[in-house]
Write a structure and sequence with these properties.
197 residues, mainly alpha, 6 helices, 63% helix
């Protein structure tokens, strides 16, 4: 027995199935890309962090050379910026002038003057050295060795960090002048009130 509505029902079902079918085919195409990646050119806009990481790990078989180069350049720039954040003095330019020959000469002369005035003061029984690194009555050799052991690494570190400037030397030389002035005053007082050893 045939129903007259029978032909209309399958037609509406067919339209419904075709509509759903086309939607599901579009969804299928978006979710499951069955193309072989090595056969298509990738654009840089598709590169996500995972793609970039894989390229940096050496998995470059499926990418165009210009994209590989772009990722490597980007990585290099990011590394450089990260290093600059960790060590901002690396590329810092300064308008400070380096220490002059006079600054160096004065610095070394003041160091020797400090040793000499300390030595002169230690000849008296009421004078003792306050620097705990050398003891209360150090020899000239010990004072020289300790100064050298402390100053040379400090100067080298400042030189490497580009912090060795004329201003720094002016400040250090000023402080050493005060130390030497104090030493001279101590020797003068010791001559008046103390006995020689």
């Amino acid at each position: 027995m045939k129903n007259s509505n029978h032909s209309a029902f399958p037609l509406s079902m067919l339209v419904l199935v075709l509509t759903l079918g086309s939607v599901s085919l579009e969804t299928w195409g978006q979710n499951l890309d069955l193309t072989i990646p090595s056969l298509e050119m990738q654009s840089t806009s598709v590169l996500d962090s995972r793609d970039k990481q894989e390229i940096m790990m050496g998995w470059t078989c499926c990418w165009d050379k210009k994209h590989i180069s772009s990722v490597q350049t980007e990585h290099s720039l990011e590394s450089t910026l990260l290093q600059l954040k960790e060590n901002p003095n690396q590329l810092q330019f300064t308008l400070s002038e380096p220490p002059s020959t006079f600054d160096w000469t004065l610095f070394y002369t003041l160091q020797l003057a400090d040793i000499y005035t300390t030595y002169r003061g230690l000849k008296y029984d009421c004078v003792k050295e306050l620097n705990p690194l050398v003891g209360e009555s150090p020899s000239v050799g010990k004072m020289f060795a300790v100064k050298t052991a402390i100053l040379l690494p400090a100067i080298e570190m400042d030189r490497r960090n580009n912090e060795l400037t004329a201003d720094t030397f002016h400040y250090m030389n000023f402080l050493m002048s005060l130390v030497i002035t104090n030493n001279i005053q101590q020797v003068s007082d010791a001559k008046k009130y103390c006995n020689k050893r």
